[in-house]
Design brief:
38% helix, Ribosomal Protein S5, domain 2, six-stranded mixed sheet, 455 residues, binds alpha-D-galactopyranose, alpha+beta
């Protein structure tokens, strides 16, 4: 036990895993004091996630079923009164940064980690009226901050488990706390999602919602289509008893995904733009969920470019890094989204009735669709799914997150976890020459203030 007795707070978050966290929290608090001096420190945290099913559906207003990890980003912070933000990180490859808060904060170069603080700071200053606060505006204070997300407790970086959203959410929660905004989860999730657009990826809202609304032991069903009042339908879904959700990190890190990602978004938007010629009311692929695929398919070309669409008078909106002449695989991408939405709803049924075999085959079908139609898998991810399915009782496996590397998940019977880990690890190394990191997802709670400590 270190100097800071956070036993109760840590148990509430990490359950049985709390003991191992004490050293990590204490080391971060010591580091904070060394850097910024003695005094009170607020400790915030935000978790990473896996997604059970529903990939690349969120920005199409579809359905998702993510689960928070108990691996998280910690942000230790102390407010400042001069509107400055100073950032440091326990990992030395994230260099110290500082910026001034305003309603138009200049972005640092792409890839700079301070953008994940600049985005939410700017969004908060622009927030003028919410349910709980009328004018936040200029009153967002800066802080001295220290982020901690190093292995083994931090959210692995670039592994498709949402380390960047966790960082954004932790920053946003800290800014909001010091501004006195008592946020409500969905409202904050929307703000954080806008904050990530600041970074350039045109992602959806899944990662921010699960980081904020997660409940222990549960996945979160989220319908990404807002209702007329801008509210989203969410429902905690218990994870199946007798199974562990295992995460297999391929060790392959995606690079340059922003461009690939935005091209998939473009393909979906192209599909909507083309379908709208016959169905003027639609705005997202979700709008055609009840129309037979064969009918839709006949209206969607295999591929089309932004330039060709423009020549027909169709614009796709603001999408950084999508070359005008890149072939957008409209038909296959739309098919993935259309079928994936159905699979999410069927998975809910399967979980509700305890039919884990059915859930497993839906995970398999989702992986095939992500690999063949959306083309976001890699040989390493495919190898992990194949190895996972070889273990007795494992009914399905799929890549999770944006793709192009990162992690695969599988539901594994509790009694098979040791065999699973050994088998998948061995086969993966034999097939790819790489090491997989395999760990259980313990479905932790959402982001927030953990405690205030005196250093
Ligand atoms: C990334 C995005 C999410 C979602 C997933 C794919 O994580 O940030 O919004 O689109 O990819 O499902």
């Amino acid at each position: 036990m270190g100097r800071f007795e956070l036993r109760e707070e840590l148990r509430a978050i990490y359950g049985a895993g709390a003991d191992g966290q004490t050293t990590r929290y204490n080391a971060a608090l010591d580091r904070f004091r060394d850097r910024y001096g003695p005094g009170p420190v607020h400790i915030f945290r935000a978790p990473g996630r896996v997604n059970l099913i529903g990939e690349h559906t969120d920005y199409n207003h579809g359905y998702v079923l993510p689960v928070a990890l108990d691996r998280d980003v910690l942000l230790l912070a102390r407010p400042r009164s001069d509107g400055q933000v100073r950032l440091a990180n326990v990992e030395d490859d994230f260099e110290a940064r500082s910026f001034a808060i305003s309603s138009a904060i200049p972005a640092a170069p792409a890839g700079d980690w301070s953008n994940y603080a600049r985005g939410p700071a700017q969004e908060l200053t622009r927030l003028r009226s919410t349910g709980s606060v009328q004018v936040l505006g200029a009153s967002v204070p800066g802080f001295d901050g220290l982020a901690s997300a190093a292995p083994p407790f931090g959210v692995p970086r670039g592994a498709g488990v949402s380390s960047s959203s966790a960082l954004t959410v932790a920053m946003a929660v800290a800014f909001a706390h010091f501004a006195g905004w008592e946020w409500e989860g969905a409202e904050m999730a929307r703000l954080c999602s806008d904050a990530e657009w600041y970074v350039g990826t045109r992602g959806g809202i899944m990662d921010q919602f699960i980081a904020l609304l997660a409940e222990r032991g549960h996945a979160l069903f989220l319908d990404c289509r807002p209702d007329a009042d801008g509210n989203f339908r969410t429902r905690p879904i218990p994870l199946p008893a007798g199974y562990r959700l295992l995460v297999m990190d391929s060790g392959v890190r995606h690079t340059n995904t922003r461009n690939e990602f935005n091209q998939r978004v473009a393909a979906c938007r192209a599909g909507v733009a083309l379908l709208r010629q016959e169905m003027p009311g639609i705005t997202h692929l979700r709008d055609v969920e009840n129309i037979e695929w064969a009918t839709l398919e006949s209206q969607l070309p295999e591929a089309v470019s932004v330039a060709a669409l423009r020549a027909e008078g169709l614009e796709l909106g603001d999408l950084p890094n999508v070359p005008d002449d890149a072939p957008l695989r409209v038909r296959a991408c739309c098919r993935h989204v259309w079928t994936e939405n159905r699979r999410v709803l069927e998975t809910l049924d399967g979980l509700g009735s305890g039919d884990i075999r059915r859930v497993g085959s839906l995970l398999d079908a989702a992986h095939a669709s992500a690999a063949e139609d959306y083309r976001i898998s890699t040989t390493e991810l495919d190898a992990l799914t194949v190895a996972a399915r070889e273990v007795d009782g494992v009914t399905g496996a799929r890549l999770t997150g944006a793709g192009w590397g990162g992690c695969v998940i599988a539901l594994v019977p509790e009694g098979q976890v040791a065999e699973f880990t050994g088998h998948v690890g061995r086969v993966y190394t034999r097939e790819t020459g790489r090491e997989a990191t395999i760990f259980p997802c313990s479905a932790g709670p959402g982001a927030g203030l953990v405690a205030v400590a005196e250093v």
